[in-house]
């Protein structure tokens, strides 16, 4: 399936109003694992991608070049549509145009753009500040005008709820939809009642960001769908699970216990070889053996 087909597939699923659940992917192993499970969509998490690729916080330190590199690798190794974090567009309006072109060319099914000041900060963390709504409206307009494929999804995220309140976040959401956003992402609502209000306010695909330990209450996908949401992303789940597993396994080794006692907690080596494509390598070697 090529990029155009993946975008068309995702847009059609969103139009049916059945909620799309998208796990967060952040490196090539997480891409391979999630892609094999045949989700409807994957979400390239900025936090996890920046952490795994650069080892720094998701605080505006990654460049466009860093991130489009990851978008290209992830999309090129996945049959599943990917929505990819594009931060603030990495600058002004010209940067937004360049970023949208790059992400679309790399094979993304959509790009998430947010209205934070630069340097941005990860959602669900303190200290986030937003730019004037009018400036973000222009970014969304440029993004919508720049894409070549009308099925390439523009996800508009506002971080206004935390610092300016829900009413301002709703006002911004309305403006961003009018500017051309396909999916609306109001970050960090703090109560189920706020999620309900968001769902009643908009008649466009709505995205809910579920972060374990974050500000937003964890409702099931079915509950979110009943409130009017079309997509639930789980950006941190994968890398939090991996970090916990690594901590446990490495602690066993550090304690001099080796790994014999944690066999059941480890993904089988044979399955990892298969996941990463070694059977094709072995078949090639056999076909070209002397």
TrEMBL record:
Keyword NAD attributed: no
UniProt keyword list: Lyase
This enzyme's EC code(s): 4.1.3.32
Signal peptide: none
Top enzyme category: lyase
InterPro entries in alphabetical order: ICL/PEPM, Pyrv/PenolPyrv_kinase-like_dom, Pyrv_kinase-like_dom_sf
Pfam families in alphabetical order: PEP_mutase
GO molecular function, one term: 2,3-dimethylmalate lyase activity
Source taxon at top rank: Bacteria
Name of protein: 2,3-dimethylmalate lyase
Organism of derivation: Pandoraea terrigena
Gene encoding the protein: Dml
């Amino acid at each position: 399936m090529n990029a155009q087909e993946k975008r068309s597939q995702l847009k059609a699923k969103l139009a049916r109003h059945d909620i799309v659940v998208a796990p967060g992917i952040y490196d090539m192993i997480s891409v391979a694992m999630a892609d094999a499970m045949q989700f409807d969509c994957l979400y390239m998490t900025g936090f996890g991608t920046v952490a795994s690729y650069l080892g720094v916080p998701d605080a505006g330190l990654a460049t466009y070049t860093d991130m489009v590199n990851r978008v290209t690798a992830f999309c090129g190794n996945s049959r599943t549509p990917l929505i990819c974090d594009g931060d603030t567009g990495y600058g002004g309006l010209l940067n937004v145009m360049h970023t949208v072109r790059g992400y679309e060319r790399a094979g993304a099914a959509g790009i998430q753009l947010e209205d934070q000041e630069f340097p941005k900060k990860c959602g669900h963390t303190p200290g986030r500040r937003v730019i004037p709504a009018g400036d973000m409206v222009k970014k969304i307009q440029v993004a919508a005008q720049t894409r070549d494929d009308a099925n390439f999804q523009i996800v508009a995220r506002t971080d206004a709820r935390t610092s300016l309140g829900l009413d301002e976040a709703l006002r911004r959401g309305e403006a961003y939809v009018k500017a051309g956003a396909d999916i609306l992402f109001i970050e960090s609502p703090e109560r189920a009642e706020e999620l309900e209000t968001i769902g009643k306010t908009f008649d466009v695909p709505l995205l809910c960001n579920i972060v374990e330990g974050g500000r937003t209450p964890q409702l099931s996908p079915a509950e979110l769908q009943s409130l009017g949401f079309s997509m639930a992303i789980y950006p941190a789940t994968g890398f939090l699970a991996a970090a916990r597993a690594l901590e446990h396994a490495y602690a066993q080794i550090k304690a001099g216990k080796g790994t014999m006692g944690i066999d059941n907690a480890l993904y089988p080596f044979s399955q990892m070889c298969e996941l990463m494509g070694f059977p094709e390598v072995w078949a090639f070697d056999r076909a070209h053996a002397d």
